[in-house]
Amino acid sequence: MMNKLTSGGNMIWESSRMIMPQHKEAAQRQLKEELKRERLELDDQEKEQIARFMTQALKTRQEVRLRMYHPYENIYLAGVIDRLESLTARFRIDGEWFLMEDIMELSWNT
């Protein structure tokens, strides 16, 4: 039985199966960039609709469901809006702050 290190084996082809760590990392980075999602740009009317919805949700204390922008994952939030800041265009759910520009979809949580 011949193993990979004995003479007579084709060492040139055996070494081609190995991949250097930096090459593996570069390939993983490239794949991640290919899967990266672009942020959708909302027009002024859509931004205004989101602002009205968020204001109503804050006033009524009704639970909302939001799909948020993330370059690689689907992120969903569900909860009651604790605070809304118009100047900084951010809101708080369960003590954590989020940007209004990251809202991709919104609805009432039923």
How would you describe this structure to a colleague?
The protein has 110 residues and is an alpha+beta fold. Helices cover 34% and strands 26% of the residues. The chain has three helices and six strands. It has a three-stranded antiparallel beta sheet with strand order 2-1-6, with helices on one face. Strands 3-4-5 form a three-stranded antiparallel beta sheet, covered by helices on one side. Strand 1 (64-68) and strand 2 (75-79) form a beta hairpin. The radius of gyration is 25 Å and the shape is elongated. The termini are far apart.
Average pLDDT reading = 83
Low-confidence stretches: none
Q: How does the helix and strand content classify structurally?
A: alpha+beta
Helix content: 25-40%
What's the short story on this structure?
The chain has 110 residues and is an alpha+beta fold. The protein has helices spanning 11-15, 21-35, 44-60, and strands at 64-68, 75-79, 81-85, 90-93, 96-99, 103-108. A hairpin with a 6-residue loop joins strand 1 (64-68) and strand 2.
